Amino acid sequence: MILEQYYTKCLAQGTYYIASNGEAAIIDPLREVQQYIDRAQDDKVRIKYIFLTHFHADFVSGHVDLADKTGATIVIGPNAVTSYAFAKAEHQQKFFIGDISLTLLHTPGHTLESSCYLLKDEDGKEQALFTGDTLFIGDVGRPDLAAKSEMTQEDLAGMLYDSLHKHILPLPDDITVYPAHGAGSACGKNMSSETSDTLGNQKKTNYALDTNLSRADFIKELTSGISAPPAYFPLNVQMNKGVNSSIDEVIKRGVTPINAAAFKALADDPEFLVLDVRSPQEFTAGHVPGSWFIGLDGQFAPWVGALIENIDQKIILVVEPGREREAVTRLARVGYDNANGFLYGGFESWKNAGFDVATTGNVSAKQFLDGLNDGSIKNAIDSRKSGEYENSHLAETELLPLAGIHAHLPHLDKEKTYHVHCAGGYRSVIFASIAQANGIDNMINVEGGYGAIKKVAKPQQLITL
Prior knowledge:
This protein has 17 helices and 24 strands. The protein is of the alpha/beta class. It has a six-stranded mixed β-sheet with strand order 1-2-3-4-5-6, covered by helices on one side. A six-stranded mixed β-sheet has the order 7-8-9-10-11-12. Helix 7 (247-254) crosses helix 11 (324-333). The longest helix has 16 residues, at 153-168. The N and C termini lie far apart (49 Å).
């Protein structure tokens, strides 16, 4: 038996490849499916099944493409409704892959169709549980994504409690839990950075599996402190229920090279968004006027989904040469299929053409603190999440989380200068870029963010819980 986890850090997402005696299965595949096809060919196995633990909200799955290319059967749990052919499995239904088996355990709560898959080896021994968003390492899936008028998040939380107690807690302690997500995903509240663990250890350390926690207390705990889901979540759910453009077509269009003159014409067209995916340092030093920064070397796809409100937005890219395909692929992972090409030759070609170059100011953490102390800096913005801010912040800063920037923009004064920081200097540059694109020109980024600020600040300057 072969069992391999493919973990994508940008999405904090785990996909699983399982093979035995000439057959293979994929659980929760990413949209770019050639990697699974290549692996199966290397192992000389046939992909027989594609299992979805549920309809994911935070990324677009490649299950339909993979089924078309391999002839594999898509398997989804009870209550699933799609526009493509699939096998609707029942609770306790068993599927054989070579000499091993996967048994579907219907575990509604995160969503109504949510299911886990219990792996038994060649000897029939229970080895692993693929839990999707039902059970994470250190947490469980949020219960609000499938809430509708006839079903509240409290109803779903109660269903999840029942699922955990009926179908997961009775399982052996020595089996390995493989979830769909880890720390950084918005599908839970406090996930661990670990990507797997024994069920026994989770029974000891995961609050959601505490048998002393009553159903009512579980519901209260699970439904408190949930931040609003990114706007793209329901759109990705619908995409995962339907048939989408082939990833091959999306990439082919997205990696179209555009010379500087043609790129400028598109950049001047309000239908197009110029997305700069280079490093924060490169962007602040010089960028296309009106462009947004969301760097590839960060939580790129989730921030794209959270901030670009129109999933059908036409996008043209400024990207480090050689990373064009990566940028287009990672946009497509969250359903942004309208990348229309990239600036050929990178930003150097823009400069060489003599077009206007915009910049974003930078100050060091020490310069920032000195300015706050002497009064020369008056409008300081903390763009981190509220939990980060509450844990520790500077008294002189106003909390304006990046996720809510579109609501904050109308309240910013175009005549004022703003200094913005985050934790490390990634989100603050995103914040500054979107503000500048909306006419708030005087944006200054604090290099190194709060991490650098804490190193040079006096203890009395920091407000901590």
